[in-house]
Amino acid sequence: MAQSPEPAGSGRQPANAPPKKPDPIAPMRSLRFWIALAVLFAANILISNLFFSAAQPATVTISYNSFLDQVNAGNVTSITSTGESITGFTKKAVSDSSGASSTKFQTQRPAFATDDLETLLQQHKVVINAKDPTAAAPLWETLLFSFGPTILLVLGFLYLSRRAAAGGAGGILGSFGQSRARLYNAERPSVTFDDVAGIDEVKADLQEVVDFLREPQKYQRLGGTMPKGVLLIGAPGTGKTLLARAVAGEAKVPFFSIAASEFIEAIVGVGASRVRDLFAKARAAAPSIIFIDELDAVGRSRSAALRIGGNDEQEQTLNQILTEMDGFDSREGVIVLAATNRADVLDPALLRPGRFDRRITVQPPDRRGRAAILRIHTRNVLLGPDANLDQVAAQTPGLVGADLRNLVNEAALGAARKNEPAVTMADFSEAIERTLLGAERKIMLSDLDRERIAYHESGHALLGLLVPGADPVKKVTIVPRGQALGVTLQSPIDDRFNYGEDYLRARMIGALGGRAAEKLIYGVVTTGAENDLMQVTRIAQQMVVRWGMSPKVGPLNYGDNDGSSFQQRPYGEGTANLIDDEVRRISEECLVAAEKGLGEHRSQLDALARALLKNDSLDENQILSVTGITRQESAAARPAGAELAGTRPIS
Question: In this model, does residue 508 exceed pLDDT 90?
């Protein structure tokens, strides 16, 4: 089993290393030195203030009138003048305004005084001393204040430089240039492939990486080399980071994990320095794995963004990553794993052979994969006898691993709030509604508003039962949730990944059902269809621009897939106007179909709205019972074509 060597900068020296030269600044790096210096300063202050000043009496400040009275009384023995300031000693103690007394005093002679002070002092035989107010400061004081700050700055600079050199980062950057990658314990891995489910094909691809790290000779004996880099591409929450840690856990090698954004600093050059330090540590610990999360933070295409100036910190960091990956041999046993959900914006130099040779797409799990993920996340959850994870998986198409983990946690929290002994199927159902629809809002609605919302949601639900190609309606409610005043929940039967034009039109007709119901019943429309119109516009535009479902535009794709915000659109004004016209045409045709369908089934629409006003929420069986539509009739209107993966709430 490979063991990770001691990290750089630990201070230990090999037995055969040459002796180091004595460092003249070494004592300054010792904590003992600074403690001794502080003790010396404290001793100096104590000696100066306690011993030498203890022999001198305290000084009191008296007025100039009191000073003249003491001179006339013959109580003053000597004075010392510095300009107009006078200090002196008396035979008997004198007091100041606060009541303190001493034989040493000080006072200030007014500048306008016209008395003959010298004659008065001589008459009373007072010893007169004088100091030059413009006398130069002592040499030691001049040197201290002139050169002291400079000496401190130089010593501080030398100290920081020595610390930086000892840390291995080089230069004055010090610890800024060191990599912030976290090293996971290879002897006790926290994650293995047993903790990853729902993406078996990805695990199979990464198993080869594990085999190479375990038995590199198996591949090297025939002259083969392992890919230097493996790029994991997938939507957020699909388990890219978990997969990388599982590879390290299976191979039992050191795993250096860092987010790409941690390379970037305000100081130019720090990112490149951290990249060099990270790869140096990985080589020293080989065989090892470097994992860079969110690679697009530093790996964006250098030609896609507008740059001011010839270079910047992000570009320097990217250049250093390219250099390091091109400079090490795959036989060194260092493999770079990276994860991103924006592979379309990465620099082409990162994706060429010799850098990230292998790209693996991590797709959302299917129904069987979701059930396996739920079983992993419920290992430490006490489940009730009625909890059916396969049924939960069937109700959550489109959810990824992170969503399912949150779903299990919400179900457990809900059961705990109700003081239940275990998590039941009802807790999972409530968690699904809370996750997909949002939390209930306690707001007061007028009777007219509730009736409008009931007809709006009834329009969605009824068309979901009648329109061919629509997804089954699972629930309809007029209880405000999240940002919606009412919700119709539709869920596909199976996970399908292809879209038929009939299915897309069915989605648009169902989304426009609320607006059509309001217009049919009240003759006017409200703002409640805002989210519905956003969905319709998005689908219609993609049908025309991306999927070639418009006869007038033709089988062309005008989508922008490279992530560049400065790309010129690949069509002119005439085509743009034609696209707008086709998007409007498709939307209006779907609206006409929605209005026609609801008009032909007005009685069922009224019955469904009345049931919603009475019960607030209806499930699938209740909806079928109220409308009189059988499950077979609804299924007959639904062809066996493609279904969209994902549960869709329609507000």
Answer: yes
- Token pair of 586, please? 């498709």
- With vertex at residue 490, the alpha carbon angle to CA 471 and CA 649, rounded to the nearest 5 degrees, is 135
Using one digit for the tens of pLDDT, what is the confidence trace for 317-366? 888 888 888 766 656 678 888 999 888 888 888 888 888 888 888 888 88
Distance CA 129, CA 119 (A): 14
pTM greater than the 0.70 cutoff: no
Q: What would the two tokens of residue 190 be?
A: 């926290």
d(C-alpha 230, C-alpha 303), whole Å: 23
Beta strands in 62-211 (DSSP E): 76-82, 85-95, 101-108, 127-131, 182-184
Residue with token string 């035989």: 125
CA distance 532 to 512: 6
- Which distant-in-sequence residues (6+ apart) come within 8 Å of 499 by Cβ? 547, 642, 644
Q: Which two tokens stand for residue 387?
A: 């909890």
pLDDT at 378 over 80: yes
How far is it, in rounded angstroms, from Cα 403 to Cα 420?
23
**What is the set of domains in the chain, with CATH numbers?**
52-131 (3.30.720.210), 182-362 (3.40.50.300), 367-437 (1.10.8.60), 447-562+570-650 (1.20.58.760)
Buried b (16+ CB within 10 A) or exposed e, 97-120: eeeeebbebbbebeeeeeeebeee
Cα 372 to chain centroid, rounded: 29
Question: Would you tell me how many other CB atoms lie within 10 Å of the CB of residue 639?
Answer: 13
- Sign (positive or negative) of CA dihedral 324, 328, 330, 333: negative
Neighbour-count burial for 238-265, b at 16+ CB within 10 Å, e otherwise: bbbbbbbbbbbbbbbbbbbbbbbebbbb
CB–CB of 62/87 below 8 Å? no
Given a cut of 80, is residue 265 above it in pLDDT?
no
Q: How wide is the angle at C-alpha 373 spanned by C-alphas 368 and 377, nearest 5°?
A: 150
**Dihedral angle of Cα 232, 236, 239, 243, to the nearest 10 degrees:** 30
**pLDDT, tens digit, for every residue of 459-472?**
999 998 888 878 88
* Residue count of the chain: 651
Q: How far apart are CA 365 and CA 356, in angstroms?
A: 25
Buried b (16+ CB within 10 A) or exposed e, 271-295: bbbbbbbbbebbeebbbbbbbbbbb
Cβ(504)–Cβ(544) below 8 Å: no
**Is 457 one of the catalytic residues?**
yes
Decide: 218 and 211 in contact? Cβ < 8 Å: yes
Secondary structure class of 477 (helix, strand, coil): strand
CA 84 – CA 64 distance, rounded (Å): 11
Q: How far apart are CA 201 and CA 207, in angstroms?
A: 10
Please tell me the distance from the alpha carbon of residue 18 to that of residue 463, in angstroms, as a whole number: 84
The answer to whether 126 touches 140, Cβ cutoff 8 Å, is no
| C-alpha to C-alpha distance for 111 and 97, rounded to whole angstroms | 22
523: left (phi over 0), alpha (psi -120 to 50) or beta: left
**E-only strand ranges, 406-517:** 473-477, 487-490
Q: Which of 315, 457, 582, 643 is catalytic?
A: 457
Report how far residue 500's alpha carbon sits from residue 542's, in angstroms, rounded to the nearest whole number: 13
pLDDT of residue 120: 84
